[in-house]
Amino acid sequence: MKLRAACIQTHHADALVAFYTQVFGRPPHVDGDVDYQFAAEQLTIFRLAGATAPATQSLALIFTVDDVDSAYTRLDALGLCNGALPTNKPWGVHSFVITDPDGNTVSFTKAIA
User: Fold this and answer.
1) What does pTM read for this prediction?
2) Half-sphere exposure of 34 (CA within 13 A, CB side)
3) Residue 41: CATH number of its domain
4) Which of 7, 31, 63, 98 is the most exposed place for a label (fewest CB within 10 A)?
């Protein structure tokens, strides 16, 4: 079994689209006014309508990258890192974590050889 994609359902689609456009370095494919697809990263942002629709705010996304330190440098220059320096974790990865505008955690990681 393999996860095909992730979808963040949110009331803050504009802020999340702007955030992930910076993270991925390109805008999403837009389908109507509610669905924003970052196909290469398998991430969709879906604009929720109505005050009773649930907000996510508990999602953790983990992206494997070729170079954690370069990813950190690029995202830090965009003001997205807030001092979250890359570190080696005891479970064998080099990584750092940032938070998106909805409060979801976004990790960038690479296995330590």
Assistant:
1) 0.82
2) 5
3) 3.10.180.10
4) 31
